[in-house]
C-alpha cells in the first residue's frame, strides 16, 4: 500500500512537518481550520493595520538555528539581521536592556547590583557554559522522551563525553543554582529572570528546570530577530514550499472525526469531506483529542499524553492596538517587557511588541501596530461576569502601566481591540484559550515531557504541548520529530 500523509493544523509544528515531508517527496495533504496559516503565529488585518496574533519575537534564524535549518532545507532561506538590542525589561526598581552581546549584557546587569558583581558573573558564566553544551544536541536533535529502540539508540549516539557535565544539573531547578551562587534572595535580579522565563518557559525561576532555563536565558544571545510583517512569514514560507513540492493545502477545513480502519486513518472535516491516509500528524491542541477520537482510541494514547489532555496551562489576554507614533516623544521599541512587581500574571507582567517605523506591511507611515499580552488563569474567566470584569480590569491595568512609562501613550491610540480566551478559542482553536504549552518544570520537561508518538500506530502529535515545548522553535522541533518518524530519515 502506498503511504500518504495527512497533517491537521497549519501551526508552525504542522507546517514544519508537512513542508519537510513534501520536500522529501511524500504525498502530503494539510488541513487548516482557519483562513490564515500559522496558528498562534498567524495574523489578522483591521483597515490599514496588520496585527500578529501572538508570537512576535523571531528566534532560531541564526546559522544552525531550528528555523534556519528548515528554511535552508526547503531552499527558502530567510536572511535578516539579528537585533543587537533585543528588548527592554522594565521593572519597578530598574530598567534592564537585553543585549545580544553576552559580555555587555552581563556587565550592564551587574551594574545594577555592584555588591553582587562576582556572584552574578559566576552565575552567567555557568549559564552560558551549560547552554553551550546543551545546544550541541540541537544539531542531531534527539527525541525526548525516547520511546523506541531507534530513538534510544539515536540519543545514545548523539551523546559525547562533554554531555556528562550536564548530569549533576539534570534534576535541578534554576532556584537551586541561584542559591548555589548566593543570589536566591536578590529579589530584583530574580524578578528580571522571571520576566524572561515566563514568556519562554511558562514558569519562573523557582520551579523551572535548570537545563532548559540555561538555554532560555542564553538563546537570545544566539540571535533574536525582528521579522518584517511578523512571524506569519514563517508559515507562508512553509505553506508555499509544501505546495511547490506537490502537497495539498486546504484552509477552512475543521477536523471533526478521525477513525482507524485497518492500516488506514479516515478523517472527516466539518463539511463532510473524507480524507484517507496511512500516516497522520495532528498539530492541534491536545485538549481536542477526545472530540476527534473515539473513546476506545483515546484510552490507547500514551499515558503522558492522556494525562496532559486533562491538564491546564496558562490562558492569555491580548491587546491589539494601532497608535499614531507622531504623538509620542519617540517611536516605540520593537520589544519590551513591563513588570509592575505584582506577579507574573493578570497584568503584573506583560510583553509588548511593536512594528518598527517603516514596516509598512504592518502599518502606514507614522503609525505602529502594538501587540500586548499577559498570562492569565482560566478560573478568572469561567463565568460571564468574571469574563467581562477580567477583560476590563486587565486592559486598564496594562494601559496604566504603559502610561507610567509613556504618559502620552493612551492619547496616541487610534484603534484597540482585545483577544480574551474565547477569542483564542474561536479563532486559533485553543480550547479555553490555553496557549504556550506546559510550564517547563522538572515534572513536565525533558524525560517527563510528552512524546510526539501518540501511542496509536502511525498517529503523531506536535505543537507547543509536545517536547520540547512552547514557542516557534519548540513547535518546529516537534514537527521535525514527527516528520522524521514518518519518513524514517533524519531529513535535516
UniProtKB/TrEMBL annotation:
Q: List each copy of the Amine oxidase domain by range.
A: 12-486
Q: Which SUPFAM superfamilies match?
A: FAD/NAD(P)-binding domain
Q: Which domain of life is it from?
A: Bacteria
Spell out the protein name for this chain. Answer: Oxidoreductase
What is the scientific name of the source organism? Planococcus faecalis
Amino acid at each position: 500500500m502506498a503511504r500518504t500523509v495527512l497533517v491537521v493544523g497549519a501551526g508552525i509544528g504542522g507546517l514544519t512537518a508537512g513542508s519537510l515531508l513534501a520536500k522529501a517527496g511524500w504525498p502530503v495533504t494539510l488541513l487548516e481550520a482557519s483562513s490564515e496559516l500559522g496558528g498562534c503565529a498567524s495574523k489578522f488585518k483591521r483597515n490599514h493595520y496588520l496585527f500578529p496574533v501572538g508570537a512576535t519575537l523571531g528566534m532560531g534564524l541564526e546559522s544552525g538555528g531550528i528555523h534556519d535549518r528548515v528554511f535552508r532545507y526547503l531552499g527558502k532561506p530567510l536572511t535578516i539581521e539579528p537585533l543587537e538590542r533585543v528588548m527592554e525589561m522594565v521593572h519597578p526598581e530598574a530598567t534592564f536592556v537585553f543585549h545580544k552581546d553576552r559580555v555587555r549584557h552581563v556587565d550592564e546587569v551587574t551594574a545594577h547590583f555592584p555588591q553582587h558583581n562576582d556572584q552574578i558573573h559566576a552565575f552567567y558564566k555557568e549559564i552560558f557554559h551549560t547552554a553551550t553544551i546543551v545546544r550541541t544536541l540541537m544539531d542531531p536533535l534527539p527525541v525526548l522522551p525516547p520511546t523506541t529502540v531507534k530513538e534510544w539508540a539515536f540519543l545514545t549516539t548523539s551523546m559525547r563525553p562533554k554531555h556528562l557535565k550536564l548530569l549533576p544539573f539534570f534534576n535541578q531547578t534554576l532556584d537551586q543554582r541561584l542559591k548555589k551562587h548566593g543570589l536566591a534572595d536578590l529579589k530584583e535580579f530574580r524578578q528580571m529572570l522571571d520576566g524572561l522565563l515566563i514568556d519562554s518557559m511558562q514558569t519562573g525561576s523557582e520551579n523551572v528546570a535548570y537545563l532548559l532555563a540555561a538555554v532560555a536565558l542564553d538563546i537570545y544571545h544566539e540571535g533574536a530577530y525582528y521579522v518584517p510583517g511578523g512571524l506569519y512569514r514563517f508559515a507562508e514560507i512553509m505553506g508555499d514550499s509544501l505546495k511547490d513540492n506537490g502537497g495539498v493545502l486546504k484552509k477552512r477545513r475543521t477536523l471533526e472525526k478521525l477513525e482507524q480502519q485497518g492500516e488506514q486513518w479516515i478523517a472527516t472535516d466539518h463539511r463532510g469531506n473524507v480524507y484517507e491516509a496511512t500516516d497522520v500528524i495532528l498539530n492541534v491542541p491536545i485538549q481536542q483529542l477526545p472530540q476527534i477520537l473515539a473513546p476506545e482510541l483515546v484510552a490507547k494514547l500514551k499515558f503522558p499524553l492522556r494525562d496532559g489532555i486533562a491538564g491546564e496551562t496558562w490562558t492569555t489576554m491580548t491587546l491589539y492596538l494601532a497608535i499614531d507614533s507622531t504623538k509620542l516623544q519617540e517611536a516605540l521599541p520593537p520589544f519590551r517587557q513591563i513588570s509592575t512587581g505584582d506577579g507574573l500574571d493578570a497584568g503584573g507582567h506583560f510583553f509588548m511588541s511593536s512594528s518598527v517605523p517603516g514596516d509598512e506591511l504592518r502599518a502606514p507611515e507614522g503609525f505602529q501596530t502594538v501587540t500586548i499580552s499577559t498570562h492569565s488563569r482560566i478560573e478568572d474567566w469561567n463565568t460571564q461576569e468574571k469574563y467581562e470584569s477580567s477583560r476590563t480590569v486587565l486592559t486598564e491595568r496594562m494601559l496604566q502601566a504603559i502610561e507610567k512609562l509613556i504618559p502620552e501613550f493612551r492619547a496616541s491610540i487610534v484603534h484597540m481591540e482585545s483577544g480574551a480566551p474565547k477569542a483564542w478559542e474561536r479563532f486559533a482553536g485553543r480550547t479555553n484559550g490555553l496557549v504556550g504549552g506546559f510550564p517547563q518544570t522538572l515534572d513536565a520537561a525533558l524525560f517527563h515531557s510528552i512524546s510526539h508518538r501518540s501511542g496509536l500506530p502511525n498517529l503523531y502529535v506536535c505543537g507547543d504541548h509536545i517536547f520540547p515545548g512552547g514557542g516557534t522553535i519548540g513547535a518546529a522541533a516537534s514537527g521535525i520529530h514527527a516528520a522524521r518518524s514518518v519518513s524514517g530519515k533524519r531529513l535535516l
